[in-house]
Design goal:
It is a single chain. This protein has 318 residues and is α/β, with parallel strands linked by helices. The chain has two domains: 52 residues; 252 residues, 2-enoyl-CoA Hydratase, Chain A, domain 1 (Alpha-Beta Complex), CATH 3.90.226. Helix 9 links the parallel strand 5 and strand 6. Helix 3 packs across helix 11. The N and C termini lie far apart (46 Å).
Length: 318
């Protein structure tokens, strides 16, 4: 059952009409006195065209809503569809385990990688357990530990970024949230092995940058990436979150804007209607794009990789 977003109401109405006609047709077929398959096919074509038309013209705020869709695939979905032999490695060896950031050894095709990413959860219970993908200091320190391990063993690092931002609670600040994010960003930039980051949903603030400071940054077609949420920006500039749509437009949060600005390197297409309508196809496309980037980076020496990262970030805004 698809959960429709606010701007998808006309599509929802058409799909509801199609479902109603199908139910009517099934009942009528039993009686043998009605055939409305042609009408159903006509409405299905109209719904598909309306869906395509809607998604071709999404505003930045609408893309933000798609990026936050509750059914959008998250870290564990990509592990299931794209990677194999995933072996989670927990704990930061300092305080404890953070379930908002998950990492471990995995295989992408025939290539062994260190896979790290945010997990938001897919129902109320799992979202609470994973803290809605908002990492605490121990999560970022775990990421540093895993990146350093990957560097020692010559494994490329793949990150899947999907967070509204790092956890802003008092306990996180008490345990050094800012320092942990800075160390994670530093660890990304210092890696002596290839690193490919992918923004798969929300890429929010330093909580995203801490896992996305790679030499190659990919982004799904309807993902968003920004220094602050549109609501947060609107609250600061206009003193009201109701201006979130204006903030999203001004901040250039979409993959298309960020590609033009040089913040990301490439866009991975999503199925029509967003990743939540076909998670398996989205995962396959992302896996293919990551593999191609890792192939291109293979064989580069550690200093060349560090220089690539330095150059790509210094170019932004120049």
């Amino acid at each position: 059952m698809i959960s429709y977003l606010e701007f998808e109401k006309p599509i929802a109405a058409l799909d509801a009409r199609i479902a109603e006609l199908r139910d009517t047709a099934e009942a009528a077929n039993i009686a043998g006195d009605l055939d409305i398959a042609a009408e159903v096919a006509k409405l299905e074509a109209k719904s598909a065209e309306l869906l395509a038309q809607t998604y071709r013209g999404l505003t930045p705020w609408q893309k933000t809503q798609v990026a936050r869709h509750p059914a959008r695939p998250h870290f564990r979905d990509y592990v299931a569809h794209t990677f194999s032999d995933f072996m989670p490695l927990g704990g930061d060896r300092c305080f404890g385990e953070d379930e908002a950031i998950i990492g471990g050894l995995a295989r992408l095709g025939d290539r062994r990688v260190m896979l790290i990413g945010h997990e938001k959860g897919n129902d109320t219970q799992s979202r609470i357990r994973h803290n809605f993908g908002m990492g605490k200091p121990e999560g970022y320190r775990k990421a540093v530990r895993l990146m350093e391990m990957a560097s020692r063993f010559g494994l490329p690092v793949v990150t899947l970024v999907d967070t509204s931002g790092a956890f802003p609670g008092v306990e996180a600040e008490e345990r050094g949230q800012a320092e942990a994010i800075a160390r994670s960003t530093e660890a990304c930039l210092a890696l002596g092995v290839p690193m490919v980051a992918s923004i798969v949903g929300e890429g929010g603030s330093g909580g995203a940058v801490a896992l996305a400071s790679a030499e190659r940054v990919l982004m799904l077609e309807h993902a968003v990436y920004s220094v602050i949420s549109p609501e947060g920006c609107a609250s600061i500039l206009w003193r009201t979150a109701e201006k979130a749509a204006d903030a999203a437009e001004a901040m250039k949060v979409t993959a298309q804007d960020l590609l033009q600005l040089g913040v990301i390197d490439s866009i991975v297409a999503e199925p029509m209607g967003g990743a939540h309508r076909n998670p398996a196809a989205t995962a396959a496309a992302l896996g293919k794009a990551i593999s191609e980037e890792l192939d291109a980076l293979a064989g580069k020496n550690p200093q060349a990789l560090r220089t690539m990262r330095e150059d790509r970030f210094l170019r932004i805004g120049a």
